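Table S4 entry, DMSO reductase anchor subunit (DmsC).
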Amino acid sequence: MKPAASVLLLTTSTGFGFGLLAWLGAYSALGLLPGHARILVVVGVATALLFASFGLGASMFHLERKERAWRAFSQWRSSWLSREGVAAVLTYPVAIAFAAVFWRDGQVIWTRLLGVAALVASLGTVYCTAMIYASLKPIRQWHNRHTAPDYLLYAVSPAPYCSRHSIPWISAHRERRQVWLPPRRRALR
């Protein structure tokens, strides 16, 4: 079995992008993102959407007739490929709203709710991608019940590593910035 390069790019890039978005949503939903980490969320969401867009763009090269790509959206009742396209398109505005509200307000109830929405939307998109592979009967290595859970695990695996190394950097940057603030003056009694 030798999958096309576009399939490998689709799998790795969209998996990482939507997995990163899922972790950011989960961190926000659980209140684990500090309110001062606004830049982390915005850069994280932008990175996630960039990787997802790159992977989805690579999947276009896998199509024989690229002018028919728009038809993929019309078959959502019967095609996992169409469901993936619809789910991906619905994930983008949720992710952008999540980043915008977090940038404006920090960690508030709306960012937690949008974090849950980003988590669900991104994992839904990854699940649809996994089911594309699981529904391919000629490829017995993929046509089994382990494909979807394995792909979901694959998608969410690299993001904690990236966030583990970026969150301390954001916190350290904030602490350095506070060093330059003038000390508070005591009130005269």
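Residues 5-179 form one domain.
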